[in-house]
UniProtKB/TrEMBL annotation:
Name of protein: CheW-like domain-containing protein
Residue ranges of domain CheW-like in the record: 18-156
Pfam families: CheW (PF01584)
InterPro entries attached to this UniProt entry: CheW (IPR039315), CheW-like_dom_sf (IPR036061), CheW-lke_dom (IPR002545)
TM stretches of this protein: none
Stored PROSITE patterns: CHEW
PANTHER family to which the protein is assigned, alphabetical: CHEMOTAXIS PROTEIN CHEW (PTHR22617:SF23), CHEMOTAXIS SENSOR HISTIDINE KINASE-RELATED (PTHR22617)
An example Gene Ontology biological process: signal transduction
Length: 165
């Protein structure tokens, strides 16, 4: 099964009228990823830095025999390096050939989002390339990042959010 099909199937697995996402915080901003992509949620663990990598690549760690690359999601968004705290977690995601880790401030919840609450990303330089869309829940907005673009791995789920025409 291709990653596109796997990601779409994961979104479809709960209810055709809703998607299920894991929400997490980065500097007070709320983000969400398809629950089907989340392999595990792990407390902070120091990484082994790699030479000649981007500033947002923290390094690698051994996760029960699998070496994963860990990205500082806050730094990748251009918000500076993440301060490590007791609530810092690594979101381990299956994004293709091997899992990757995202350092985030905290994991919030698992929520079902009705498809009617999904919106395309705002048409602003760079924003539409970094986001698949946004989910609106009452007065809250949850950004749905394009992980394939932000950290690589080939995951594509853009068809899950309605496009503007």
């Amino acid at each position: 099964m291709s990653m596109m099909t796997a990601a779409a199937a994961a979104f479809e697995s709960t209810d055709s009228q809703a998607i299920r996402i894991v929400t997490f915080l980065v500097e007070g901003r709320q983000f969400g990823v398809d629950v089907g992509l989340v392999r595990e949620i792990k407390g902070w663990q120091a990484t082994t830095p790699l030479p000649n990598t981007a500033s947002y690549v923290l390094g690698v760690l051994n996760l029960r025999g699998t070496v994963i690359t860990v990205f500082d999601f806050r730094q990748r968004l251009g918000l500076g390096p993440s301060p490590i705290s007791r609530s810092s977690v690594i979101l381990v995601l299956d994004l293709g050939r091997q899992p990757v880790g995202l350092l985030v401030d905290a994991v919030s919840d698992i929520v079902d989002i009705p498809r009617s609450d999904l919106r395309p990303p705002p048409e602003m330089l760079g924003v539409e390339e970094a986001l698949h869309g946004i989910a609106v829940r009452g007065d809250k907005v949850i950004a749905l990042p394009d992980l394939g673009m932000l950290v690589g791995g080939g995951v594509q789920t853009a068809e899950l959010v309605p496009t503007q025409h």
